[in-house]
TrEMBL record:
One of its GO terms (molecular function) is gamma-tubulin binding. Keywords: Coiled coil, Cytoplasm, Cytoskeleton, TPR repeat. It comes from the Eukaryota. The lineage of its organism: Eukaryota, Metazoa, Chordata, Craniata, Vertebrata. Its main location: cytoplasm. One of its GO terms (cellular component) is centrosome. This is Centrosomal protein of 70 kDa. Plays a role in the organization of both preexisting and nascent microtubules in interphase cells. During mitosis, required for the organization and orientation of the mitotic spindle. It comes from Glareola pratincola. TPR repeats lie at residues 136-169.
C-alpha cells in the first residue's frame, strides 16, 4: 500500500501536474510515511480526484459546444463519427478548434471571398433554379443534383463508346446519331415485313389484307360446320374422316 501511495504522491508532485493539484496541508491531518521516512501528503487527493472528474465531465460539454460552433461556421465539414463516444480527449477538442481556425485563416487569405449578400444571392438563385422552398433543403437538393449529374455523365460516356463517337461530341450529336440508328432499324423492319408478305407495294399489302378479311370468316365457319357434322374436334382428322365416309 505504501508503494502505491508513494507512486501517487510522485505523480501529484510531478512537474506535469497543475500547480494547484498538490498542496502541503497546514493542519493536523493524517499522513503516511514513505519507505525512506518522508511524509506523503494525500489529504488533498480526494479533492484532486473530484476536480479531475469534474474536468472530465466538462470536457464532454465543451466538446459538444465546439461541435455546435463548428456546424455553424463550417457546416460542410463531415461530422466526427466518434462524437457519441464516452471518453473525450483534449486532442479531440484541439482537432475541432484547429479545423475552425484553418477555415478562418483560409478565408482571410483568400481575397476573393464573396460577401454575405453575394452568398445569399447565390443560395437564392439555386433555390429558384432547383425549386427549393427552404434553406434546409438546399444541401439535400445539391446532393440530388450531383447524383443525377453523375448518372447522366456516365450514360453519355457509354453512348459515346457504343456509337463510336468522339468524347467531345455534344449531346445534340448523340441524339442525332441515335435518331438515325432508329430510322435504319425501322427501315429494316418495314423491308422484312414486305418480304414476308411477298410484295414491295403498300397497296398490294392493303389488298391482301382485305382479301384475307373477306375470305377467312366464311372459311372459318365452314371448318366449324365440318367439325360439328363429323363429330370431331381436330382439323387434322377432317380428311381421314371424309375418306372413311367415301
Amino acid at each position: 500500500v505504501l508503494k502505491v501511495l508513494s507512486h501517487i504522491d510522485s505523480i501529484l508532485r510531478s512537474p506535469r501536474a497543475p500547480p494547484l493539484i498538490y498542496r502541503r496541508s497546514k493542519g493536523p491531518v493524517q499522513t503516511y510515511t514513505k519507505e525512506n521516512g518522508q511524509e506523503c501528503g494525500f489529504e488533498h487527493l480526494p479533492l484532486t480526484i473530484e476536480m479531475w472528474a469534474d474536468q472530465l465531465m466538462a470536457l464532454k460539454d465543451l466538446h459538444r459546444s465546439l461541435r455546435k460552433l463548428s456546424l455553424e461556421l463550417v457546416p460542410w465539414h463531415a461530422a466526427d463519427p466518434q462524437d457519441n463516444r464516452e471518453s473525450i480527449r483534449v486532442e479531440d477538442l484541439q482537432f475541432v478548434v484547429d479545423a475552425i481556425l484553418e477555415e478562418i485563416e483560409n478565408k482571410e487569405k483568400n481575397s476573393q471571398t464573396p460577401s454575405l449578400p453575394t452568398l445569399r444571392a447565390i443560395v437564392s438563385h439555386f433555390q429558384k433554379l432547383f425549386d427549393v422552398n427552404s434553406l434546409s433543403g438546399v444541401y439535400p437538393r445539391m446532393n440530388e443534383v450531383y447524383t443525377k449529374l453523375g448518372e447522366m455523365t456516365n450514360a453519355m460516356r457509354n453512348l459515346h463508346e457504343l456509337l463510336e463517337l468522339d468524347s467531345s461530341a455534344p449531346p445534340t450529336v448523340v441524339v442525332d446519331t441515335v435518331g438515325k440508328l432508329c430510322d435504319i432499324i425501322n427501315g429494316n423492319v418495314t423491308e422484312q415485313v414486305q418480304q414476308l408478305l411477298g410484295t414491295q407495294d403498300i397497296h398490294s399489302i392493303i389488298k391482301k389484307l382485305e382479301e384475307h378479311e373477306c375470305f377467312f370468316p366464311p372459311f372459318q365457319a365452314l371448318i366449324q360446320d365440318l367439325l360439328c357434322l363429323l363429330e370431331i374436334s381436330n382439323l387434322d382428322d377432317i380428311l381421314p374422316t371424309v375418306r372413311n365416309l367415301k
